[in-house]
């Protein structure tokens, strides 16, 4: 089965992990700081590593002070963690509809969803295409909300000349194997606001405070620490950080190959009846994580099943979040975001990963063309 996404591991990655395993530090060691510094050079802002993209969102919302009585405005066209991270802190999630072309959070819909209780606006860079951050920033500043970017798909992407990671107040990344780079499991939070990043760092380390100037009892001894607010152990170990740093050295090549594959899809699928191709706005330079096409005329399920039967791993990204029982049982109803639901009804993600060969991509294209033409 040809997968829809897959990691790219070379000997340099293996060597980096073996070196970490042979060191004195498997976790909480020097490779954590090294990986965070490497990430900062790509993200354009300081970063704190965490165990995965889901915990990155949880830590970011906690750092933003999200809690009971607050509202978080976000998109339903995402993985559930974008919403559940806020809900688990006691906030009310308010879903706003998406843009017809990009499936990113529609700023006009987000504005209509704002209230005096809005604590955060959380955008998602769907498929690696950055959201409309200039308009969303104006909304956040207007209401005093924290702007959060779920950039699980988008490390390496650029918005109007600025790297994703340097725009929102808090930006989260995922390093799952199918993402743009991998640490096996892993994630990070970037922030342009030092006080928020300090809160992320403390939260991911079980709430432990060690800096003498912050301790309420600073004279106890060098071993002493305090917990001022609850946190969790979301630390990413040195072994996985070593893999991340090795992967980052290949990020430019990863982006170039993903762009080549995207351009081939664009060219070879152009004009196919019953098929709508993804749109890339002129003001962004994305590192595409997904190649999401839309299957028209009610044929999405048929096409999905026939592609799978042909040995081609396609995927659907995503089920509207509020359709999940955990949200529907809270009173959320289908029909809330019609553009997102229409997008979901038609979307299929075609295989897109760095080691996808031209020959295998041609097979994907020929198979899809044949199904749609039958």
Automatic annotation (TrEMBL):
Gene3D superfamilies: Aspartate Aminotransferase, domain 1 (3.90.1150.10), Type I PLP-dependent aspartate aminotransferase-like (Major domain) (3.40.640.10)
Active-site residue numbers: 179 (proton acceptor)
GO molecular function list: pyridoxal phosphate binding; transaminase activity
Keywords carried by this UniProt record: Pyridoxal phosphate
InterPro entries assigned to the protein according to its UniProt record, in alphabetical order: DegT/StrS_aminotransferase, PyrdxlP-dep_Trfase, PyrdxlP-dep_Trfase_major, PyrdxlP-dep_Trfase_small
Biological process, per Gene Ontology: polysaccharide biosynthetic process
Keyword Ribonucleoprotein carried by entry: no
Known cofactor(s): pyridoxal 5'-phosphate
Top-level taxon in the UniProt lineage: Bacteria
Cytoplasm keyword on record: no
UniProt modified residues of type N6-(pyridoxal phosphate)lysine: 179
Family: Belongs to the DegT/DnrJ/EryC1 family.
PANTHER family found in the cross-reference section: DTDP-4-AMINO-4,6-DIDEOXYGALACTOSE TRANSAMINASE, TRANSAMINASE
Record's protein name: UDP-4-amino-4, 6-dideoxy-N-acetyl-beta-L-altrosamine transaminase
């Amino acid at each position: 089965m040809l997968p829809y996404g897959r990691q790219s591991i070379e000997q340099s990655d293996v060597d980096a992990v073996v070196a970490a395993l042979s060191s004195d530090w498997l976790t909480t060691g020097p490779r954590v700081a090294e990986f965070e510094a490497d990430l900062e050079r790509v993200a354009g802002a300081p970063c704190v590593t965490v165990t995965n993209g889901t915990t990155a969102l949880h830590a970011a919302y906690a750092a933003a002070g999200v809690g009971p009585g607050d509202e978080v405005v976000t998109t339903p066209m995402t993985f559930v963690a974008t919403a559940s991270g806020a809900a688990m802190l006691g906030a009310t999630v308010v879903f706003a509809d998406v843009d017809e072309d990009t499936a990113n959070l529609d700023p006009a819909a987000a504005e209509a969803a704002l209230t005096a209780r809005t604590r955060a606006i959380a955008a998602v860079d769907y498929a690696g295409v950055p959201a409309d951050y200039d308009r969303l920033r104006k909304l956040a500043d207007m209401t005093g909300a924290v702007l959060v970017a779920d950039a699980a798909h988008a490390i390496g992407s650029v918005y109007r000349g600025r790297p994703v990671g340097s725009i929102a107040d808090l930006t989260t990344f995922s390093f799952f194997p199918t993402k743009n780079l991998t640490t096996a499991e892993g994630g990070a939070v970037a922030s342009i606001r030092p006080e928020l990043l300090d809160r992320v760092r403390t939260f991911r380390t079980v709430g432990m405070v060690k800096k003498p100037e912050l301790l309420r009892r600073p004279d106890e001894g060098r071993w002493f620490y305090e917990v001022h607010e609850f946190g969790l152990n979301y630390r990413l170990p040195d072994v996985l950080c070593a893999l991340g740093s090795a992967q980052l050295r290949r990020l430019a090549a990863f982006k170039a190959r993903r762009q080549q594959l995207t351009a081939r899809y664009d060219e070879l699928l152009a004009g196919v009846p019953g098929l709508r191709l993804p749109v890339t706005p002129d003001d962004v330079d994305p590192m595409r994580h997904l190649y999401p096409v839309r299957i028209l005329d009610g044929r999405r399920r048929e096409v999905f099943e026939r592609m799978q039967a042909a040995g081609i791993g396609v995927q659907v990204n995503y089920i509207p979040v509020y359709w999940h029982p955990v949200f529907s049982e809270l009173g959320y109803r289908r029909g809330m975001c019609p553009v997102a639901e229409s997008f979901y009804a038609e979307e299929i993600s075609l295989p897109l990963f760095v080691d996808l060969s031209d020959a295998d991509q041609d097979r994907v294209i020929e198979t899809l063309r044949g199904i749609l033409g039958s």
